[in-house]
Amino acid sequence: MIEPDEIKKLDSGFSLILIIWGAIFASLGVYLGVSLFIADTLTAAVGDKFPLVTLRYALFGISAATLVAVHFLRGFMLGHPGAVKNLRSMPSAQHPAVARYSVIVIVTSALLESIGIYGLVLFLLAKDALSFYQLLGVAAVAMLVYRPKKEELLALARRMDTMG
What we know:
Keywords: Membrane, Transmembrane, Transmembrane helix. The chain has five helices and no strands. By secondary structure, it is mostly helical. α1 runs parallel beside α3 (96-126), α2 (52-79) runs antiparallel to α3 and α3 (96-126) runs antiparallel to α4 (129-145).
């Protein structure tokens, strides 16, 4: 059972986690805005001899591997709270579950954001707008699917309390 004062700490910590996640999610919008702004003036940075098709397949493959890795990594980190170490040695007013859940959210969001960055790389190198929009859309949808959930934070706090 979680104490009422711990619930307040979890609520305030969850608000901060949402702000961090929102900032990472908003960076996808920045990538979109930059691409729309420079689309008319951009010229392809690679020539005909550059293996663009190979690069496209590689980045799409890495994106698929990233999605699978995030799914399993997030599940592992949520299921085994001891796997995420709290790096603070000093006492904190923050609940330990908030610190661990924020690490989980930041790591998974950064991995998912990298999918959008792969699309941006394709756009900047080859002016490949279609691949950019596809990868950016995949990143945005995945970030919405794996968004921070208060139920996960509460479940993590309960597991950490039972672990001692």
